[in-house]
Amino acid sequence: MRLIYSLLWWLALPLVLARLWLRGRKEPGYRQHWGERLGFYGAPMAGAGPVLWVHAVSVGETRAAEPLVDALLAAYPASRIILTHMTPTGRATGKALFARHGERLQQAYLPYDTASMVGRFIRHFRPAICILMETEVWPNLIAVCAARSVPVVLANARLSERSLRKSRRLGTLLLDAARGITLVAAQTQGDAERVRSLGVARVAVTGSIKFDVVVAPAALETGARLRSAIGARPVLLCASTREGEEELILAAFQQARASLPSDVLLLIVPRHPQRFADVEAMVAGRGLRVQRRSTLALAPAGAAQQGADAAGRATLPADTDVLLGDSMGEMFAYYAACDCAFVGGSLLPLGGQNLIEPAALGKPVLIGPHTFNFALVTEDALTAGGAVRVADAAQLMQTAARLLNDATARDSMGQQALAFANQHRGATARTLALLPDLIVVPHP
Q: Which residue numbers delimit the 3-deoxy-D-manno-octulosonic-acid transferase N-terminal domain (predicted)?
């Protein structure tokens, strides 16, 4: 099965590269660093300590990896980290998050999953361990790591029932790969049981590392400056929205204007940057006044509490209906600037997104009916009173109207969300405690 899988990779490679080129029309990052995707890299990493390999496919996984990366560098002071991604947005997020580590952390694209490409990567970087974040299971990568005695850890692992069924349909390919994983640190007991059913020998329940993310002061400062530019208007944030959801949200927003505060601002942050222009056109096509975050001048750092006017900068025009969040790496700032947050990917059957970030900032969280990728954490947040599930976009606006018109209810729900987030911290330390017997300096 792995031989057939590898052959399919080689046959598909011209189409894969063509798709990269086409995607590069909207996201130029897809046209960069192609050599890395094929397993060719530049000069070796500086330093002599062990190389710890962390793979975070895109933005969400990269942000989730932040506490673990910081903890690894602190626990292994002689070590260096090679952080790999699959998307330009993940790479850009990593650059923003980890620039402070300097030469101790290098970024690259993960090569495509053929034995020769992965082999070149491992020969070049000589990692002591491979840590895959959340759901990344690559058959050839795991097989090559096993052949070269590189332990493979799946950290912050989650596996839904739907993903488990898909894995079983792939037969021995995924089952053999799962059995090649040295250790799985699962988010929940349910995740652990599903992983064990695939044949993984060593599985531990550590919780979600995402609860351990520490909000950088700079993000809070940006959020305060953004809020200052917006002014006293109530802000409903719809974060990480996916294709098809914005249309539902905008229609419901227009229908619910009478029940919402008259000066409410709808802040929409699409999950994928290549859709920014399409969403802007969609908003304008409905007759709503829209402004991009990238065109909004903010007060200088440190001046937010004086107000944007005091700093001599333009504020958001009062007749703006929708602010489009078209910046990268500012999700915490958007959450900090809002009064109530809806987490996207959940109005349509897409599995939902991480609701921990708004909860950690003490914001009331609204979530749609489709949250199978984050089932337990969502149920826990609902039980704790920090989140409310809505059936559709109309109910989203109804619930938002209730919260935005009732400061007491809004503050109470935000405090419950914060308590929920604080209660679940500690997964990073539990994961780190599992690694000492696995991290060894590789032989030449």
A: 32-213
